[in-house]
């Protein structure tokens, strides 16, 4: 058996979807967090309702690493259909806990793994009545066993159950009973704790546990969004669910609701509602995923050309087509940047974690209204639906929404004639008016060819004049989107570029590369169009890697198109299995390429 791993190991539960394991798994992860130990949890679940395998992986890292580790130290194998796969995933010196109610197939055993049999199903059957309650309590029993085996603080677990069930004493009693069954059995039959164990700490002080979709929804609330329209699609639906919950709590009262949430008949209708609400002056948004962006493209182009603000949250999942709806990828980079036909370019923000989902949600509304254009917050399933330990969010109460150049009644009354697309101050942005404010602000909003005065045109010069201004406005957005951030070495041969949810793996990879003598520079892209700092970073390094979670190096293509970067100047490291990227993939990719370069 390998040495002790205190607050530094991976725990994974293998189960069957629809058996209620999520509650038990959540109990374990929250208990670890409340013990003051940094953790991150990732849920790998099927896209059907029930019956297929599901896994829940908790990375415990005293160093605060939040990416997937790429290995498992302790596996709780509760699904006989995946035993072979689960055994293979355990690292040498690790543990596999299984339900010994039924005999274990010794052909699956490994000499370098310790197998721990606990009769979960038998204990649940003997202690509880009713098939459904037995299934549910079997999971809670393994949570109790883990408490003994990993040295989870039982006082924390008891408090969590009280917090979860409140005054429902019968549920608290049932869960206490199940926890005690697993805990006592493990204590009586095994040496507890294992070499992989927990020790209370204080490293989660000032932190919260939240998923990216809930964080983004909270950002929308703080930004003053009042209209949300969407068509349900995995993995974005929980964003609107969270927004509705926040609005019902904070925007409802005796005078009624101060918000409007609409479930549309499809994605095309949803974005149409957002554009209409934004045209009327509301802050409106829609959450969706790649297939939704495809269906919304025509209205997105309409909003771009008519210069109507709109905010879209793309929680990326695996494509093409329906793909794998419950797996993660960064595969919508190009479709978000160029959504719709004709010459369109869209501002995109790339959050790396839930705290940035909160911050960038608010930034997106300011950018959309300042620039009068659609803005995409490009997240993904890993950020959006998994639980992350994050610093507590902060908000500047003095902050006010940036509504951009919107003429009020007094301003409209003072001008001789209002021209919707006339850029008076040469910043690429024409002042807009809102319906009903003043008769002089009226104009016909058209998605067909129009000139700078807002009139219909098929004149080549007039059409090109408007399109050139839109291009100029987009280029000016380089100074407004969040700048890329650099860390690691500032000088040296090797630079690495990444974005979004790859950041967690990159932070760990940089530390591991440094341990092997390579002090690489790291640039995290946070917005499109790219600022000058991106070009300067590329120019400063002899070898520049671009880390992406898609097959076709889409960010690399975007860098080539936007900055004119040569193809050979960026070495792609592409991870696209649908599982979140991990540090070892990056480390090995960098070292292997540098070795090949040296021997070429």
CATH topology of the largest domain: Pyruvate-ferredoxin Oxidoreductase, domain 3
- Note the gap between the termini: 41 Å
Query: How do the strands line up in the largest sheet?
Result: 7-6-5-2-4-3-18-9
CATH class of the largest domain: Alpha Beta
Q: What's the topology here?
A:
Layout: E1 5-6, E2 8-16, H1 21-34, E3 39-44, E4 53-61, E5 72-77, H2 83-89, E6 90-99, E7 114-118, H3 120-127, H4 131-150, H5 154-165, H6 169-189, E8 196-197, E9 207-211, H7 212-223, E10 227-230, H8 237-250, E11 252-253, E12 256-257, E13 260-263, H9 267-279, E14 284-288, H10 290-306, E15 310-316, H11 333-337, E16 347-349, H12 354-371, E17 374-380, H13 381-385, E18 387-391, H14 409-414, H15 460-476, E19 485-488, E20 494-499, H16 503-515, E21 521-525, E22 527-528, H17 532-540, E23 543-548, H18 554-563, E24 571-574, H19 583-599
Parallel strand pairs: 1-8, 2-5, 5-6, 6-7, 10-13, 10-14, 14-15, 15-17, 16-17, 20-21, 20-23, 23-24
Antiparallel strand pairs: 2-4, 3-4, 3-18, 9-18, 11-12, 16-22, 19-21
């Amino acid at each position: 058996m390998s040495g002790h791993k205190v607050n530094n190991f991976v725990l994974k539960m293998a189960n069957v979807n629809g058996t209620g394991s999520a509650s038990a798994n959540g109990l374990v992860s929250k208990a670890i967090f409340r013990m003051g130990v940094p953790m991150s949890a990732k849920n790998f679940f099927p896209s059907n309702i029930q019956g297929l395998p599901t896994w829940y992986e908790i990375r415990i890292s005293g160093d605060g690493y939040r990416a997937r580790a790429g290995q498992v130290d302790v596996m709780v194998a509760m699904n006989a259909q995946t035993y072979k796969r689960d055994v293979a995933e355990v690292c040498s010196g690790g543990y596999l806990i299984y339900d010994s109610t039924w005999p274990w197939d010794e052909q699956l055993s490994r000499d370098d793994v310790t197998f721990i049999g606990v009769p979960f199903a038998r204990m649940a059957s003997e202690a509880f009545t009713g098939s459904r309650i037995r299934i549910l309590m079997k999971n809670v029993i393994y949570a109790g066993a883990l408490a003994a085996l990993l040295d989870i603080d039982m006082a924390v677990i008891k408090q969590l159950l009280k917090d979860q069930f409140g005054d429902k004493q019968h549920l608290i009693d049932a869960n206490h009973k199940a926890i005690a069954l697993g805990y006592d059995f493990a204590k009586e039959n095994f040496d507890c704790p294992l070499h992989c164990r927990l020790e209370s700490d204080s490293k989660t002080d000032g932190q919260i546990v939240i998923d990216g979709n809930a964080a983004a929804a909270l950002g929308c609330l703080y930004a003053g969004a009042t209209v949300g329209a969407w068509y349900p699609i995995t993995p974005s639906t929980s964003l609107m669910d969270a927004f509705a919950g926040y609005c019902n709590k904070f925007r409802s009262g005796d005078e009624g609701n101060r918000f409007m949430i609409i479930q549309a008949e499809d994605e095309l209708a949803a974005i149409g509602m957002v554009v209409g609400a934004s045209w009327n002056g509301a802050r409106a948004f829609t959450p969706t995923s790649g297939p939704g962006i495809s269906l919304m493209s025509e209205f997105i182009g309409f909003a771009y050309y008519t210069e109507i603000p709109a905010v879209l949250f793309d929680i990326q999942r695996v494509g093409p087509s329906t793909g794998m709806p419950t797996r993660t990828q960064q595969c919508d980079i190009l479709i978000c940047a160029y959504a719709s036909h004709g010459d369109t370019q869209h501002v995109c923000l790339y959050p790396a974690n839930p705290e940035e989902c909160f911050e960038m949600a608010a930034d997106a509304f300011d950018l959309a209204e300042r620039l009068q254009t659609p803005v995409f917050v490009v997240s993904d399933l890993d950020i959006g639906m998994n639980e992350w330990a994050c610093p507590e969010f902060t908000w500047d109460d003095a902050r006010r929404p940036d509504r951009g150049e919107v003429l009020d009644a007094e301003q409209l009354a003072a001008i001789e004639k209002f021209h919707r697309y006339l850029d008076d101050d040469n910043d690429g942005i024409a002042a807009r008016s809102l319906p009903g404010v003043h008769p002089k602000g009226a104009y016909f909003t058209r998605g067909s060819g129009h000139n700078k005065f807002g009139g219909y045109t098929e004149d080549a010069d007039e059409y090109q004049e408007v399109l050139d201004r839109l291009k100029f406005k987009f280029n000016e957005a380089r100074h407004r989107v969040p700048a890329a951030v650099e860390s690691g070495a500032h000088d040296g041969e090797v630079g690495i570029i990444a974005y979004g949810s790859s950041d967690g793996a990159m932070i760990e990879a940089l530390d591991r590369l440094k341990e092997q003598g390579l002090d690489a520079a790291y640039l995290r892209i946070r917005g499109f169009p790219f600022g000058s700092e991106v070009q300067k970073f590329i120019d400063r390094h002899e070898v520049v890697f671009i880390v992406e979670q898609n097959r076709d190096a889409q960010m690399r293509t975007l860098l080539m198109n936007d900055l004119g970067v040569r193809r050979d100047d960026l070495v792609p490291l592409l991870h696209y299995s649908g599982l979140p990227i991990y540090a070892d993939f990056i480390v090995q990719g960098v070292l292997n390429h540098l070795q090949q370069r040296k021997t070429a």
